[in-house]
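Weekly modeling sync, notes
Attendees: S.R. (lead), two postdocs, one rotation student

Agenda item 3: backlog of single-chain predictions. S.R. asked that every request posted to the team notebook include the full sequence so nobody has to chase files. The rotation student volunteered to paste the first one in as an example of the format we agreed on. Action items at the bottom.

Example entry:
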Amino acid sequence: MYYPIKVPKWFQKLFPAYLWRGATVQNKKQLYLTFDDGPIPQITPWVLDQLRAYKAKATFFCVGANVQKNKAIYQRILNEGHQVGNHTFNHVNGWKTKHQDYITNVTACREQVESKLFRPPYGRLKWQQAKELRKDYKIVMWEVLAGDFDASITGEQCWQNVCQSAKNGSIIVLHDSQKSWQHLSYVLPKLLEHYHRQGFTFEAITIEDES
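Predicted structure, as returned to the notebook:
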Protein backbone atom coordinates (compact mmCIF):
# COMPACT_ATOMS: atom_id res chain seq x y z
CA MET A 1 0.00 0.00 0.00
CA TYR A 2 1.54 3.31 -1.06
CA TYR A 3 0.72 6.60 0.58
CA PRO A 4 2.90 9.67 1.14
CA ILE A 5 3.92 10.03 4.78
CA LYS A 6 4.55 13.74 4.33
CA VAL A 7 2.68 15.77 1.72
CA PRO A 8 5.30 17.84 -0.15
CA LYS A 9 5.00 21.62 -0.31
CA TRP A 10 4.66 21.63 -4.10
CA PHE A 11 1.61 19.38 -3.87
CA GLN A 12 0.04 21.50 -1.13
CA LYS A 13 0.41 24.54 -3.42
CA LEU A 14 -1.61 22.80 -6.14
CA PHE A 15 -4.66 22.97 -3.84
CA PRO A 16 -4.33 26.29 -2.01
CA ALA A 17 -7.99 26.31 -0.93
CA TYR A 18 -7.40 23.27 1.27
CA LEU A 19 -5.88 23.51 4.73
CA TRP A 20 -2.69 21.44 4.92
CA ARG A 21 -0.99 23.03 7.94
CA GLY A 22 -2.20 24.69 11.09
CA ALA A 23 -1.46 28.22 12.22
CA THR A 24 1.95 28.96 13.67
CA VAL A 25 2.72 31.63 16.26
CA GLN A 26 6.10 33.26 16.77
CA ASN A 27 8.07 31.73 19.63
CA LYS A 28 5.55 28.89 20.02
CA LYS A 29 5.83 25.28 18.89
CA GLN A 30 2.47 23.77 17.95
CA LEU A 31 1.18 20.54 16.45
CA TYR A 32 -2.32 19.74 15.28
CA LEU A 33 -3.43 16.19 16.04
CA THR A 34 -6.46 14.95 14.15
CA PHE A 35 -8.39 11.71 14.60
CA ASP A 36 -10.57 10.30 11.82
CA ASP A 37 -13.46 7.83 11.70
CA GLY A 38 -14.81 7.82 15.28
CA PRO A 39 -16.29 8.04 17.73
CA ILE A 40 -15.78 4.38 18.69
CA PRO A 41 -16.45 2.86 22.15
CA GLN A 42 -13.33 2.14 24.22
CA ILE A 43 -10.99 3.64 21.59
CA THR A 44 -12.15 7.27 21.48
CA PRO A 45 -12.50 7.51 25.30
CA TRP A 46 -8.93 6.14 25.61
CA VAL A 47 -7.72 8.79 23.16
CA LEU A 48 -9.47 11.48 25.20
CA ASP A 49 -7.83 10.20 28.38
CA GLN A 50 -4.39 10.40 26.75
CA LEU A 51 -5.01 13.93 25.50
CA ARG A 52 -6.29 15.11 28.86
CA ALA A 53 -3.11 13.90 30.59
CA TYR A 54 -1.10 16.37 28.49
CA LYS A 55 -3.71 19.15 28.37
CA ALA A 56 -3.72 18.53 24.62
CA LYS A 57 -6.49 19.62 22.27
CA ALA A 58 -7.24 17.83 19.00
CA THR A 59 -9.69 17.75 16.12
CA PHE A 60 -11.95 14.75 15.59
CA PHE A 61 -13.29 14.22 12.08
CA CYS A 62 -16.36 12.19 12.90
CA VAL A 63 -18.38 9.77 10.79
CA GLY A 64 -22.05 10.65 11.18
CA ALA A 65 -23.23 7.05 11.63
CA ASN A 66 -20.74 6.59 14.48
CA VAL A 67 -21.88 9.80 16.17
CA GLN A 68 -25.48 8.62 15.89
CA LYS A 69 -24.57 5.38 17.69
CA ASN A 70 -22.22 6.94 20.26
CA LYS A 71 -23.71 10.29 21.22
CA ALA A 72 -22.30 10.29 24.76
CA ILE A 73 -18.74 9.87 23.49
CA TYR A 74 -19.28 12.62 20.93
CA GLN A 75 -20.55 14.89 23.67
CA ARG A 76 -17.48 14.14 25.75
CA ILE A 77 -15.27 15.28 22.84
CA LEU A 78 -17.08 18.61 22.86
CA ASN A 79 -17.20 18.91 26.64
CA GLU A 80 -13.43 18.50 26.89
CA GLY A 81 -12.77 21.37 24.50
CA HIS A 82 -11.81 19.55 21.33
CA GLN A 83 -12.86 20.51 17.83
CA VAL A 84 -14.99 18.31 15.57
CA GLY A 85 -15.34 18.07 11.81
CA ASN A 86 -17.56 16.39 9.24
CA HIS A 87 -16.16 13.14 7.75
CA THR A 88 -19.34 12.15 5.83
CA PHE A 89 -22.11 9.99 7.24
CA ASN A 90 -20.86 6.63 5.94
CA HIS A 91 -17.14 7.23 5.26
CA VAL A 92 -17.70 7.40 1.51
CA ASN A 93 -14.99 7.68 -1.13
CA GLY A 94 -15.49 10.82 -3.19
CA TRP A 95 -13.77 9.36 -6.25
CA LYS A 96 -16.24 6.47 -6.35
CA THR A 97 -19.42 8.37 -5.48
CA LYS A 98 -21.73 10.40 -7.70
CA HIS A 99 -21.69 14.10 -6.97
CA GLN A 100 -25.16 14.48 -5.50
CA ASP A 101 -24.92 11.25 -3.52
CA TYR A 102 -21.71 12.53 -1.95
CA ILE A 103 -23.17 15.92 -1.04
CA THR A 104 -26.23 14.19 0.42
CA ASN A 105 -23.98 12.00 2.58
CA VAL A 106 -22.09 15.03 3.87
CA THR A 107 -25.40 16.77 4.61
CA ALA A 108 -26.59 13.73 6.58
CA CYS A 109 -23.43 13.95 8.69
CA ARG A 110 -24.08 17.64 9.30
CA GLU A 111 -27.26 16.66 11.17
CA GLN A 112 -25.01 14.85 13.67
CA VAL A 113 -21.85 16.99 13.58
CA GLU A 114 -22.16 20.76 13.79
CA SER A 115 -18.96 22.08 12.24
CA LYS A 116 -17.60 24.17 9.40
CA LEU A 117 -14.63 21.82 9.02
CA PHE A 118 -14.71 18.93 6.55
CA ARG A 119 -12.22 16.20 5.75
CA PRO A 120 -12.90 13.81 2.86
CA PRO A 121 -12.39 10.13 3.73
CA TYR A 122 -9.16 8.85 2.13
CA GLY A 123 -8.47 12.47 1.13
CA ARG A 124 -10.37 11.71 -2.08
CA LEU A 125 -12.56 14.41 -3.49
CA LYS A 126 -13.61 15.31 -7.02
CA TRP A 127 -13.25 18.91 -8.17
CA GLN A 128 -17.01 19.38 -8.44
CA GLN A 129 -17.57 18.00 -4.93
CA ALA A 130 -14.89 20.29 -3.51
CA LYS A 131 -16.35 23.33 -5.25
CA GLU A 132 -19.77 22.64 -3.75
CA LEU A 133 -18.47 21.89 -0.26
CA ARG A 134 -16.28 24.97 -0.08
CA LYS A 135 -19.44 27.08 0.02
CA ASP A 136 -20.08 25.82 3.55
CA TYR A 137 -16.85 24.21 4.79
CA LYS A 138 -13.15 24.65 5.24
CA ILE A 139 -11.68 21.51 3.66
CA VAL A 140 -8.94 20.17 5.94
CA MET A 141 -6.28 17.83 4.61
CA TRP A 142 -2.96 17.13 6.40
CA GLU A 143 0.80 17.33 6.21
CA VAL A 144 1.73 14.07 8.00
CA LEU A 145 0.00 10.70 7.65
CA ALA A 146 1.05 8.33 10.43
CA GLY A 147 -0.14 5.18 8.65
CA ASP A 148 -1.75 3.71 11.76
CA PHE A 149 -4.33 2.03 9.50
CA ASP A 150 -1.60 0.04 7.70
CA ALA A 151 -1.34 -3.53 9.03
CA SER A 152 1.78 -4.13 6.93
CA ILE A 153 3.94 -1.88 9.14
CA THR A 154 4.82 -2.06 12.82
CA GLY A 155 3.83 0.34 15.55
CA GLU A 156 7.44 1.52 15.69
CA GLN A 157 7.46 2.23 11.94
CA CYS A 158 4.26 4.17 12.40
CA TRP A 159 5.91 6.23 15.13
CA GLN A 160 8.95 6.88 12.93
CA ASN A 161 6.61 8.14 10.21
CA VAL A 162 5.48 10.84 12.60
CA CYS A 163 8.69 11.79 14.40
CA GLN A 164 10.72 12.02 11.18
CA SER A 165 8.14 14.20 9.41
CA ALA A 166 6.21 16.38 11.87
CA LYS A 167 7.38 19.93 12.50
CA ASN A 168 5.94 23.14 13.88
CA GLY A 169 2.45 23.66 12.42
CA SER A 170 2.02 20.13 11.05
CA ILE A 171 -1.45 18.64 10.87
CA ILE A 172 -1.06 14.94 11.74
CA VAL A 173 -3.61 12.24 10.90
CA LEU A 174 -4.37 9.38 13.28
CA HIS A 175 -7.50 7.23 13.44
CA ASP A 176 -9.68 6.41 16.45
CA SER A 177 -10.88 3.24 14.76
CA GLN A 178 -10.78 -0.48 15.47
CA LYS A 179 -8.60 -1.05 12.40
CA SER A 180 -5.95 1.37 13.68
CA TRP A 181 -6.12 0.51 17.37
CA GLN A 182 -2.99 -1.65 17.60
CA HIS A 183 -0.76 1.06 16.11
CA LEU A 184 -2.61 3.99 17.66
CA SER A 185 -2.25 2.56 21.17
CA TYR A 186 1.52 2.39 20.63
CA VAL A 187 2.05 5.69 18.84
CA LEU A 188 -0.14 8.18 20.65
CA PRO A 189 1.47 7.96 24.13
CA LYS A 190 4.97 8.17 22.58
CA LEU A 191 3.96 11.11 20.40
CA LEU A 192 2.43 13.10 23.25
CA GLU A 193 5.38 12.50 25.57
CA HIS A 194 8.05 13.14 22.93
CA TYR A 195 6.68 16.46 21.69
CA HIS A 196 5.61 17.60 25.15
CA ARG A 197 9.24 17.21 26.28
CA GLN A 198 10.31 19.29 23.29
CA GLY A 199 8.03 22.13 24.38
CA PHE A 200 5.24 21.65 21.85
CA THR A 201 1.60 22.28 22.60
CA PHE A 202 -1.20 20.40 20.86
CA GLU A 203 -3.92 22.61 19.41
CA ALA A 204 -7.32 22.09 17.80
CA ILE A 205 -7.92 23.37 14.27
CA THR A 206 -10.21 26.35 13.93
CA ILE A 207 -11.98 27.75 10.90
CA GLU A 208 -9.53 30.69 10.92
CA ASP A 209 -6.39 28.55 10.80
CA GLU A 210 -3.93 29.15 8.00
CA SER A 211 -0.23 28.29 7.94
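Discussion: group reviewed the output briefly. The chain has a mean pLDDT of 95.
Action items: rotation student to repeat for the remaining queue; S.R. to check formatting next week.
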